[in-house]
Specification:
- The complex is a heterodimer of chains A (115) and B (111).
- Chain A is mostly beta strands and 115 residues long.
- Helix content of chain A is 0%, strand content 56%.
- Chain A has strands at residues 4-7, 10-13, 18-25, 31-37, 44-50, 53-57, 64-70, 73-79, 87-94, 105-106, 110-114.
- In chain A, a hairpin with a 2-residue loop joins strand 5 and strand 6.
- Chain A is globular.
- The N and C termini of chain A lie far apart (36 Å).
- With 111 residues, chain B is mostly beta strands.
- Chain B contains no helices and 11 strands.
- The chains are: A mainly beta (115), B mainly beta (111).
- The A-B interface holds A 31, 33, 35, 37, 41-45, 48, 50, 55-56, 58, 88, 90, 92, 94, 96-109, 111 and B 30-31, 33, 35, 40-45, 48, 50, 86, 88, 90, 92-99, 101-104.
Chain lengths: 115, 111
């Protein structure tokens, strides 16, 4: 199983809502990543989790709150988002984060629209 | 200047043509990835290279570390190859730094 799954596929939320994005992999990977991709732009790294601990937070606003409850699951909690946060949110995983030359496996993404 | 530059940005070709997409980078890397993104979002990893050349089906990827340049070739192109092709580099620190992405090449193969 070389699949990274993400739910939901699409999400529409108001600026006062609280929602969560979910990412799951069962490849035994110990590194998981959140990327944000705006239309016609390359993905931008948001967070890196290594062995269930947050190792990188790329100056992401606190309205985005990541959580890694176990080695297979990565959540992104959303609260009080702004319309400019509308984007495709991609999750990826790799065997480990520290070792170089690790292939990252990407999920299909969650397309988020903030009204 | 972006750390990862791709060319061309857009490419339209006829079915059967040989396609080349180029990637140049200006930072030290441990590996370079070629990724494919279809409309709708999902990204598929095509190749990961640290030296030389790799081939998978009709796709060939090469990298020249000294020149900091990589190319992705598609032989006998087909309309289903239409997608955005993204070059991404992995810093020497490994995946802990995430990937640094190029802006992508939007490829359209016409029947």
């Amino acid at each position: 199983d070389t699949e990274v799954t993400q739910t939901p596929k699409h999400l529409v939320m108001g600026m006062t809502n609280k929602k969560s994005l979910k990412c799951e992999q069962h490849m035994g990977h110990r590194a998981m990543y959140w990327y944000k991709q705006k239309a016609k732009k390359p993905p931008e790294l948001m967070f890196v989790y290594s062995y269930e601990k947050l190792s990188i937070n790329e100056s992401v606003p606190s309205r985005f709150s990541p959580e890694c409850p176990n080695s297979s699951l990565l959540n992104l909690h959303l609260h009080a988002l702004q319309p400019e946060d509308s984007a495709l949110y991609l999750c990826a995983s790799s065997q480990v984060a520290e070792k170089y030359q690790e292939t990252q496996y990407f999920g299909p993404g969650t397309r988020l629209l903030v009204l | 200047k972006n750390e990862v530059e791709q060319s061309p940005q857009n490419l339209t070709a006829q079915e059967g043509e040989f396609i080349t997409i180029n990637c140049s980078y200006s930072v030290g890397i441990s590996a370079l990835h070629w990724l494919q993104q279809h409309p709708g979002g999902g990204i598929v990893s095509l190749f990961m290279l640290s030296s030389g050349k790799k081939k998978h089906g009709r796709l060939i990827a090469t990298i020249n570390i000294q020149e900091k340049h990589s190319s992705l070739h598609i032989t006998a192109s087909h309309p289903r190859d239409s997608a955005v092709y993204i070059c991404a580099v992995c810093r020497p620190g490994g995946g802990a730094d995430g990937l640094t992405f190029g802006k992508g090449t939007h490829l359209i193969i016409q029947p």
